[in-house]
Design goal:
Elements: E1 2-9, H1 13-25, E2 31-34, H2 50-54, H3 66-69, E3 71-74, E4 79-83, E5 88-91, E6 96-104, E7 108-110, E8 123-124, H4 129-140, E9 145-149, H5 153-163, E10 170-174, H6 187-199, E11 203-205, E12 210-215, E13 221-225, E14 230-233, E15 235-238, E16 242-244, H7 247-251, E17 260-261, E18 273-275, E19 280-284, E20 289-291, H8 296-310, E21 322-327, E22 330-336, E23 343-350, E24 354-360, E25 366-372, H9 378-387
This protein binds flavin-adenine dinucleotide.
Length: 403
């Protein structure tokens, strides 16, 4: 049995940030990190972007100073059970670890294709460095026909990245919405984005979804869609969202509701147990509505703050997380809710190429801001969300952020 002052379960960026948060407050106490992965914490965003352009893996790992921090990282050490009453966790080998403070930073796990899809096990999941390496190997060995199922962040990014990964790539992006990101973007933007993909050689199969995946004797997979359309491809990748990896907490009797429920300080319903990052459901803003955020900026900021609180600080989480994406040479940063059902006001520098989209709630308060090829304006966008005032007329917002 090992006793740790601070025990961190998970080896992603939220765990990493928490370790640094703990060290900011407590320079000496024993800190142990138990990670299921075989690689030290790394950034996931390049797995669907830069790595496909430059192959440069070293940029992923900028968290290699655990020795200097006096923190012990135990790789390939999945935790099997948490026993909050005993202040104990048990890892996959049956080894027991006791703690004074425990952090669950177990992140999220890709959802499989729906159970109704026959042969869904033939689709690859995409989350980890190993997933990237497997897909990269397949492309290097000649896979050219790839179907990406799901048009969310990962699906759209991966389709763009794969289509540029080698000569003669033939990428199909299959998703149920009528246009790419029509749930997020105003209609004209979604139409523009869809065209943008098509002009760059991606086959956009919108308004459709997979029904069956059949592994072929020779090589490849036959995909049959709800519409009856069929494709024969080398590989299928599923990008249909993630679920919080919260089974450890649920099995331990810790309160879970779409993720591990925490208060503004990162505390769960169990004494001395905290959670942060993608796995945590936390109260956001003045309304205190419980949300889970699956973005890197949140994982960093929440992790750090919760780490500091574990070590004795009492700081509420007030940060408004930002998120971003790269789609070919289009890119954006955003805060708040991007929901095309909300009223929107588009303030263009150049129509559809560069500008700011404001999402307004029923009281015409700014609920979300999309900075479409507009950079370094995230703080101004956060300020508008924080202000919480109503904007009765669109024109009042003109030029407010884009400058
Ligand atoms: C391909 C890809 C691209 C992305 N791009 C962007 C982007 O452009 N912008 C953006 O804002 N966000 C992006 N994200 C999201 C961002 O990477 C995540 O929000 C972030 O990684 C969350 O960090 P986390 O540490 O909370 O969780 P994770 O990164 O999921 O880390 C959780 C860790 O816990 C470990 N673990 C789980 N269960 C156990 C257990 N029982 N015992 C021990 N260890 C366990 C896992 O193995 C993993 O190491 C992307 C994600 C992916 C996958």
């Amino acid at each position: 049995m090992a006793h740790c002052e601070y025990l961190v379960v998970g080896g992603g960026v939220a765990a990493d940030a928490a370790v640094r948060g703990i060290r900011e407050v407590d320079a000496k106490a024993r800190v142990d990190v138990l990670s299921a992965e075989d690689a030290p914490p790394y950034d996931r965003p390049p797995l669907s972007k830069a790595l496909w352009r430059d192959h440069r893996m070293e940029g992923l790992f900028h968290h290699l100073d655990y020795g200097d921090l006096g923190v012990t990282l135990h790789l390939t050490t999945p935790v099997a059970r948490v026993r909050p009453d005993a202040h104990e966790v048990v890892d996959g080998t049956g080894r027991s670890w006791t703690y004074r403070k425990l952090l669950l930073a177990t992140g999220a796990t890709p959802r499989p294709l729906p159970a109704a899809v026959a042969g869904r096990e033939h689709a690859l999941a995409y989350r980890t460095l190993d997933d990237y390496l497997a897909l990269r190997r397949a492309v290097d060995e000649g896979a050219r026909r790839i179907l990406v199922a799901g048009g969310g962040f990962i699906g759209a990014e991966l389709a763009a990245a794969l289509s540029q990964a080698a000569d003669a790539m033939k990428v199909t992006l299959l998703f149920p919405e009528p246009k790419l990101w029509s749930a997020r973007l105003p209609d004209a933007m979604a139409a523009y984005l869809t065209r943008y993909y098509e002009e760059r050689g991606v086959e956009v199969a919108s308004g459709d979804e997979p029904r069956a995946l059949e592994k072929l004797d020779g090589q490849g997979v036959r995909v049959r869609a709800a519409s009856g359309r069929e494709w024969v491809v080398d590989l299928v990748v599923a990008g249909v969202g993630v679920a919080p990896t919260d089974a450890l907490a649920r099995d331990a009797g810790i309160r879970v509701a779409d993720g591990v429920v925490v208060d503004a300080f990162g505390k769960t319903s169990a004494p001395d147990v905290y959670a942060c990052g993608d796995v945590a459901s936390f109260p956001l803003g003045a309304a205190g509505e419980s949300v889970r955020v699956e973005h890197e900026d949140h994982a960093h900021r929440h992790g750090r703050l919760v780490g500091r609180n574990m070590a004795g600080r009492d700081e509420p989480y007030m940060h408004i997380p930002m998120f971003y994406s790269d789609l070919f040479d289009l890119g954006f940063e955003a805060v708040g809710r991007l929901d095309s059902r909300l009223a929107t006001y588009e303030d263009w520098v150049e129509p559809l190429r560069q500008g700011v989209v404001y999402y307004l709630d029923g009281s015409r308060r700014v609920a979300g801001v999309l900075l479409w090829n507009v950079w370094d304006r995230v703080d101004a966008a956060r300020e508008l969300l924080r202000e919480g005032r109503a904007w009765p007329r669109d024109e009042e917002l003109a030029g407010r952020i884009r400058g």
